[in-house]
Design brief:
alpha/beta, FAD/NAD(P)-binding domain, Enolase-like, domain 1, five-stranded antiparallel beta sheet, 11 helices, 29% strand, binds flavin-adenine dinucleotide
Length: 411
Amino acid sequence: MTQSSFDIAVIGAGHGGVELVAALRQHGYQGSIVLISDEADVPYQRPPLSKDYIKRAANTPALVLKPENFYADNAIDLRLGVKAEAIDRQNRSVSLSDGDSISYGHLVLATGARNRKPPVPGLDHPEILQLRTLADANRIVHALPKTKHIAVIGGGFIGLEAASLLRAMGIDVDVVEMAPRLMQRAISEAASAWFLDHHRGKGSNVHLSTSVSSVQHGTGGAKVQLSDGNALEADAILLAAGVEPNTDLAAACGLEIANGIAVNEHLLTSDPAISAIGDCASYPSRHLGGMARLEAVQNAVDHARCVAERFTGQAKPYDALPWFWSIQGAARLQIAGLSRPGLTEVIRKGADESRFSVFLYDGSELVAVESVNSPADHMAARKLIGSGIALTPAQAGSPQFDLKALISAHR
Ligand SMILES: Cc1cc2nc3c(=O)[nH]c(=O)nc-3n(C[C@H](O)[C@H](O)[C@H](O)COP(=O)(O)OP(=O)(O)OC[C@H]3O[C@@H](n4cnc5c(N)ncnc54)[C@H](O)[C@@H]3O)c2cc1C
């Protein structure tokens, strides 16, 4: 008989959900665990989907987060292709799309995010490509052999990662970005400008401060009408216009929502029997000085570990330093800390034009560092910001100043 009552139920088997169940067992948690995923595939990593996977350099087995037998071997009831449809907080139960219902001692929402679809005529057409799931990536892989020209809608991380891969495969690429600069929400002006040159230098057409007004689909492709009056004829369109958190389930059962499922410093929602982690959770961040909702593997994994530690007797407030990465052709971008508008940008040059870091200051406080092809700067930045080691803008801007020695002096 299928078990229906669990000490911990986790909804969503992405980076957060899988890390949580693994960390619970790693810390010796003995209770019963169910992990519910509405995707049919064995839980997998998303970052390679916009990197090696679409150029066929990674295969599906290489993507899995844990080998398939991991779940049974660790007494984790993994239910694939099953959607959690409603939460009954009073009875601590969740009804599932397969007709089953489970009850929980504690519920963790790790429901992630879904692609945002701007309300533009023609963008909801079935031919439009997206990139969130393995199924999405497989659709792109199948479309590529007949693609000569692609319009990428959105100049954020995922759109640009895909654009650089597709361009390197000889496909004509147009990137259409509404904002006046690339990755505006996430990176400094200096880094944005460098990436604009980088993509244009590789032959992508980048349209800034331009939105898509409509898409008309024909037999051999589509016509993308732009806000500046121009139009693009493309045989494929990739929509990469950002994501929105999956909060519907939480909202429907009355949990507090504030740009994500609102949680406290212990990642507990407004119901103490329910936690939320990863892309779907909005949490109080010391590093931002307010509520943050991040879309990054580090965030999902560190949230998961924090919750697992709470269940295994080591509860502490969540305080991890955020960090991110993105690979766009030969450019590897790594970010430590959280950027925000109005910061002072200090450039630290590397050995050549393709290597540098931008140190971002709020007054005299270093709050974030963006490194391009400079992994040593990134590792140093994580230690400097994470440990609150003072680095003056003059020191940051001097490539001769030894960051490693400064860190060692504070050990
Ligand atoms: C193409 C791509 C490239 C990326 N590259 C990077 C990168 O280079 N670096 C980086 O740091 N981050 C990257 N990210 C972001 C990173 O993958 C996410 O931040 C991370 O996956 C978040 O993990 P999560 O567990 O919170 O959510 P997700 O991984 O989104 O998992 C949530 C899961 O919950 C499921 N779910 C939702 N609702 C229900 C329900 N009601 N019932 C059952 N299941 C449900 C969803 O279908 C999904 O499987 C990338 C993302 C994408 C899509």
